[in-house]
Amino acid sequence: MATNFIDYVKIYCRSGKGGAGSLHFHRAKYVPKGGPDGGDGGRGGHIILRGNRNLWTLLHLKYQKHIQATDGGKGGESRSFGKDGEDRIIEVPCGTVVYDGDTGEWLTEIKEHGEQVILLKGGRGGLGNWHFRTATNQAPRYAQPGEPAQERTIIMQIKVLADVGLVGFPNAGKSTLLSVVSAAKPEIADYPFTTLTPQLGIVSYRDDRSFCMADIPGIIEGAAEGKGLGLRFLRHIERNAVLLFLVPACSEDPKHEYEVLLSELEKYNPQLLSKARILAVSKSDTMPEEDVRKIVANLSDAYDIPVVAFSSVSGQGVSELKDILWDELSKEQNQVIEISHSPLDIERVEREEPEAANDQEEGEHTIYLNEVEEDWDLSKYEGIGWDTQSEN
Ligand SMILES: Nc1nc2c(ncn2[C@@H]2O[C@H](COP(=O)(O)OP(=O)(O)OP(=O)(O)O)[C@@H](O)[C@H]2O)c(=O)[nH]1
Ligand SMILES: [Mg+2]
User: Fold this and answer.
1) Secondary structure E strands in the chain
2) What number does CATH give the domain 164-336?
3) What's the whole-model pTM score?
4) What's the gap in Å between 187 CA and the centre of ligand 1?
5) Contact status, residue 281 vs residue 310, Cβ threshold 8 Å
6) Which atom of ligand 1 lies nearest, measured to the CA of 193?
7) Tens of pLDDT along 286-318?
8) Nearest ligand 1 atom to alpha carbon 196
9) Contact (CB, 8 A) for 240 and 163
10) For site-directed labelling of 315, which of 46, 121, 192, 381 has its Cα 20 to 30 A away?
């Protein structure tokens, strides 16, 4: 499946460690006992995530297996500060969810443009010995080490933030609908699985209002067991406020089709069934009007959700469908896009994600304990300072 839509990446990240505080004593020709003047170490660089609405995939991160910020510089003499390490900012699309790559634990998510989250904090710089002078200890031979760096392997996934998600069998007419109600140009064809990656479109509504619609690959019976394209794209409707189910008018058994879709969704995540649903009978132009009316009446009787028929070809029913969608979106209870922070099942994900297979290369599992810097060799400072006489 050649595609540029990358919605999964696994990356090893490390922040910078803090620079060590300096242990130093002032020395000048006619100032024999200059006192401590070791400055503070600089802060290590953070690893920061930033939302960027111009991004739509994680493609730019696909080949980036390691992201590291730089360490803080060491403090210097004359109370000079060490340089702060440089932060590394990772730009991600809005709707990116971040998990711990080893445990699957949910860590954070980025929803808005410009939103920044510090994923891994850089270590604080250590204090120089200048800070530790006291009345009783005027020559502290002690300075703090910098704080250690933090490291973690993370998994980032995109969960598209759309208001309406399209759900249907392959060929139900999902992409065609998106193409007539928005400016999106999805691929459309009369074979199943035309759509291989999610597509988004902005639907303009009356009075300059608009909402966002997501078209995802078709679902078939057994998708939960991996049939067709499986359920890996269903996460893109997890955060939609309203789900729009499409069942074609020419379907042999519209009820059965709808129920298969429901049960596949339930197997993926039962919470999906608590979202507002609308059932639309698509391709109404392919059947006599009378038959379409019957199908709609039948479905309305069976299910307690709005049912509407439309045709993307003739345009019949499309504006009514938009009205219903807008109505549902405006309802108070549908405003909140529920987010379940359930942890990621790493094994399942690595089975399903094609990208996951080839990133098993050895990680750098360095552990940064409170490392002792080489300036920590206190004997190096003997002969300098307060309580010694020699000038060299
Ligand atoms: N007559 C008629 N044909 C339609 C209508 N909508 C879509 N089609 C046709 O149905 C076929 C499938 O349409 P798509 O929009 O690609 O279907 P899809 O649901 O996106 O399919 P997948 O991407 O494979 O899941 C295409 O040949 C469309 O031209 C409609 O309202 N009326
Ligand atoms: Mg399609």
Assistant:
1) 8-14, 47-51, 66-68, 88-92, 96-100, 106-110, 116-120, 151-158, 164-168, 199-205, 209-215, 242-248, 276-282, 307-309
2) 3.40.50.300
3) 0.70
4) 10
5) yes
6) 24
7) 999 999 999 999 999 999 999 999 999 999 999
8) 23
9) yes
10) 192
Q: Is 192 in the pocket of ligand 1 (CB under 6 A)?
A: yes
Ligand 1 centroid distance, CA of 193 (Å): 11
For the domain covering 1-160+344-392, report its CATH number.
2.70.210.12
DSSP letters spanning 176-232: HHHHHHBS------SSS----S-EEEEEEETTTEEEEEEE-----TTGGGT-TTTTT
- Residue where the block lists tokens 């998600």: 165
The whole-angstrom separation of Cα 70 and Cα 86 is 5
Which residues of the chain carry a pLDDT beneath 50? 1-2, 357-392
**Residue 329, number of CB atoms within 10 A of its CB:** 19
The pLDDT of residue 4? 65
Q: In degrees, to the nearest 5, what angle opens at C-alpha 233 toward C-alphas 228 and 238?
A: 135
**Domain residue limits, the chain:** 1-160+344-392, 164-336
The residue type at 183: A
Residue whose CA lies nearest to ligand 1 atom number 6: 173
Assigned token pair, 60: 């730019």
**What does each C-alpha distance from 133 to 36, 42, 136, 143 come to in angstroms?**
7, 20, 8, 11
DSSP assignment, residue 257? H
Are 142 and 37 in contact, with CB atoms under 8 Å apart? no
Q: Which residues contact 208 (CB under 8 A, 6 or more apart)?
A: none
Q: Determine the Cα–Cα distance for residues 121 and 16; give it in Å rounded to an integer.
A: 8
Ligand 1 pocket residue status of 218, Cβ below 6 Å:
yes
Write the DSSP symbol of residue 114: T
Report the distance separating Cα 73 and Cα 17, nearest Å.
9
Q: 3-class secondary structure for 48-65?
A: EEEECCCCCCCHHHCCCC
Q: Is 63 exposed, middle or buried (0-12, 13-18, 19+ CB in 10 A)?
A: exposed
Structure tokens at 392: 């060299």
